[in-house]
Amino acid sequence: MSETDGDHFDPHEHDRLSLPQVRLDDLLDEVRSRLTEISRKQERIHTLLEAVISIGEGLELDPLLLRITETATGLVNARYGALGVIGPDGNMSRFIPVGLDPHEISCIDHWPRGEGILGLLIKEPEPLRLKEVSDHPESRGFPAGHPPMHTFLGVPIRIRDKVFGNLYMTDKADGTEFTGDDELLMRALATAAGTAIENAQLFAQTQSRETWLDASGQITTRLLSGAAPEEVLRLVARRARVMAQSDIAVIAMPGEDPETLTVRVWDGPEDQCESLAAGARGATLTRAEDTLLGRVYLSGTPLQTDVSEFEHLGVGFLTRMGVGPVLVLPFGPPDGARGVLVLARDSGREDFQGSWLNMLSSFANQAAVALELAEARLDSERLSVLEDRDRIARDLHDTVIQRLYATAITLMGTVRRIDDATSAKRVQGAVDDLDDTIRQIRSTIFALQSSGEDDSSWLRSRVLELVNTSAETLGFAPRLLTQGPVDNAVDERVGEHLIPVLRELLSNVARHSGATTVDVELSVDNGEVVLRVSDNGRGIPEGVARSGLRNLASRAEELGGAMAVASGPGEGTVVEWSAPVQREE
Fold first, then answer.
1. How many Cβ atoms are within 10 Å of 414's Cβ, its own excluded?
2. Number of Cβ within a 10 Å radius of residue 552
3. CB-hemisphere CA count at 13 Å for 23?
4. Contact partners, residue 357, CB within 8 Å, separation at least 6
5. Backbone torsions φ then ψ of 326, nearest 5 degrees
6. Which residue in 90, 182, 199, 473 could disulfide with 178, CB within 3.0 to 4.6 Å?
7. 185 vs 509: CA distance, rounded Å
């Protein structure tokens, strides 16, 4: 192109054309950068949503807490993460770490206890982000052997208006510090975690209530079905131990001494049953106000503590078992406790959840009330049986014995008018049989009128009980006849000799005689008590050592009495043991 064509070349024209192109490149770079940032944030939001979904998948609390910690660590790309749970006392009760290998864990003296920066988050539950942990004035409280940490991000987990715990993140994997976006993501995750934890707690409480209702139903059913109170107490201890996730359950109730509590039942794992039984069986504890169990029993107020804090307060049998956290509940209504229920965990385990206190107290109250009602029902049934037995005994005495006695008197009068000796002898035999029948009926009347509990101190009752229990070894029930004022006339010290004599004689019959009938006669007459035991067995063979019988004879001689033995092959054995009713000083 030539100048004659009118075209003209401007050297600045190229610069003017390139300036818009440069600005456009900058704008495109900025757009690409922002799109990349938006894409990255969208990816992190997507990751957050996946994290929220993942932590809400289960309702078991312990796996949930670990899942929250692992999810939070991955969300902000942290090398180490932990979740610290705040206990009822405001201190850290649990510490759940993530990112430590077994060697690092073995080097740590103990888990952090909520001091320094970790404690600062407990006292001031607000997000905290640090570029260098060591530069903070509260940088302390890390246990010996804890790996060094630099960058830090802490966020509280809230359940409604209450702080459940804190999430602690340290050292990003890429070596950078935590950003404001990391903090926002952690706060969002902590909010979702609080909801998930609350749901898990509600689920656990629901399960506990179902377990409590099921246990209460079982106990009530067992009581109404007539189960023994001791069996029901063992069931209460077992179910309470399972509900509270404790290692030991003990029920202590007032003993013979009104100022003491006696361990009635206990329950524990099978591998601890022997040691538990050895440590708790029959342990007698004072119930004064200055003892741990006495405080709860007298005040009716549950107490949750660590048994090591009360070693001097009458709980030595628990400390010997190596327990730590304990929960002591009144067994019964607060204004009338029947005893105490002690739930204990091994030393080193976490404390009982405070939310369980009311539930377990209600369970113990209901179990105690049900037990009281069942005992009242048993007393009523026992009274009804005793009334029936008393009525039968009265009818036997007032009607049957009187008629038999009148018949015997009539026959005695008839004997004198009978001239035929054979006939007179037969009538006299009938009179003797009537007298024997009257004695048997009187023994039966006494057995009917004996309650078996309140009369245990009476000699006649003790003899009756011994005769009845011997039926198990003999295979049949011996016949018992008693005559005279056995309970009123026989000295207590003489009775202490008579009972083992009767036990030995019945034992000899069961072991050696092969008898099918045994008669036991106990009579008091003319200042002497006579015990006569006869059987229809094989008799005492010749040449057999009679060391047992010699011991019985020496007892009689010690009291100023005597013993006679009559026995023959195939004719049975008759042993008559006698002594003065009053032992001579």
1. 15
2. 22
3. 6
4. 302, 304, 327
5. -130, 150
6. 182
7. 89
Q: What gap in Å lies between CA 529 and CA 401, rounded to an integer?
A: 24
Tell me the per-residue pLDDT of 483-493, one tens digit each, with 9 for 90 and over. Answer: 877 777 888 88
Q: 3-class DSSP state for residue 92? A: strand
Tokens describing residue 454: 């309140």
Please give the Cα distance from 62 to 96 (Å, whole number).
10
Spatial CA neighbour of 380 closest among 219, 450, 388: 388
Nearest to 152 by CA among 134, 131, 167, 135: 131
* φ and ψ at residue 51, rounded to 5 degrees: -65, -45
Hunting for tokens 């630099």 — which residue is that?
Answer: 150
Residue 97 has what pLDDT? 87
**Whole-number Å distance between alpha carbons of 480 and 459:** 14
Q: From 327, 344, 329, 356, select the one nearest 208 (Cα to Cα).
A: 356
Q: d(Cα 331, Cα 337) in Å, to the nearest integer?
A: 5
The model's pTM = 0.49
Residue found under tokens 């009274």:
383
Taken in order 279, 283, 289, 295, is the CA torsion positive or negative?
positive
Relative to beta strand 479-483, strand 518-525 is: parallel
437's CB contacts (< 8 A; 6+ apart) are 404
Q: Which of 379, 330, 323 is nearest to 352 (CA)?
A: 323
Give the C-alpha distances (Å, rounded to integers) separating 367 from 226, 248, 302, 340.
Answer: 15, 18, 16, 12
Quick check: 212 and 233 in contact, CB under 8 A?
no
Q: Residues 402-449: pLDDT tens digits? A: 777 677 777 777 877 787 778 878 888 887 777 777 666 766 666 555
- The SS3 call for residue 137 is coil
Which residues are CB-contacts of 541 (< 8 A; sequence separation ≥ 6)?
569
Beta bridge partners of 532: 521, 576
Closest CA to 302 of 260, 361, 257: 361
SS3 533: strand
Residue 469 structure tokens: 């229990």
Question: Helices 61-75 and 13-55, interaxial angle, to 10°?
Answer: 170
Burial of 44 (0-12, 13-18, 19+ CB in 10 A): middle
Rounded CA-CA distance 527/110 in Å is 81
Q: 212 is written with which tokens?
A: 């409590």
Distance CA 328, CA 319 (A): 14
**pLDDT per residue over 155-181, tens digit each?**
988 887 788 888 888 888 888 888 888
Q: Which three-class secondary structure state does DSSP give residue 549?
A: helix
What is the pLDDT confidence band of residue 102, given thresholds at 50, 70 and 90? Answer: confident
Closest CA to 361 of 339, 336, 328: 328
What whole-number distance in Å separates Cα of residue 563 and Cα of residue 577? Answer: 4
Amino acid at 133: V
One-letter identity of residue 166: N
Q: Please, are residues 147 and 104 in contact by the beta-carbon 8 Å criterion? A: yes
Report the chain's C-alpha Rg in angstroms.
44
